[in-house]
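Encode chain A's predicted structure.
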Amino acid sequence: MYAPRQHARLPALAAAACLSLPLAATARGAELELPSFPDLREQATESVDLTLGWMPLHLMGWLMNDGDPDAAQVKETLKGLKSVQIRSYQFNADYAYPQADLDRLRARLAAPGWSPLVQVRKRGDRDGQDKEKVDIYVTLEDKKVKGLVIIACEPRELTIVNIIGTIDLEQIAGLRRTFVPPAKRIAQLPPQA
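Encoded structure for chain A:
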């Protein structure tokens, strides 16, 4: 008697698995496999190579003080996140990072599923100082942001951020304060960006 019931469940399990595949593909599609840029870490005067998955993010939220309003806002934001990746490098020389890698990353973000949200180009002065490029891309599902990528380039600095999960864009400022040191320029992006 047990065997027929077990076989009756197989079609239901197969249907559930098939229905979950598009969801898994969407979540995986938003997460970019950012290279760790080992050569850049060797050349950089300062570097950040941070990858946090679901467990560390939720543990961080669990450890935050519920009585602090800022911490409560960050904790609420962390509930919807699946991963955060940050790659940031500063150099002593201009354009020490490989432009071809950035072009490949931008090409992946031009594929269906991702949409450009903000594109900032600062040409700098006559000497080429203060030149800057910032690109922000989002991926949506049911009119909700499910992924965010920020690429910020200056002649001597490169920062790439990939956030995966349900994101309220108004809560990004809280994450910015949590994950990016105040001295970094990416942290100085205006809230409306």
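Confidence is low (pLDDT under 50) at residues 1-28, 185-193.
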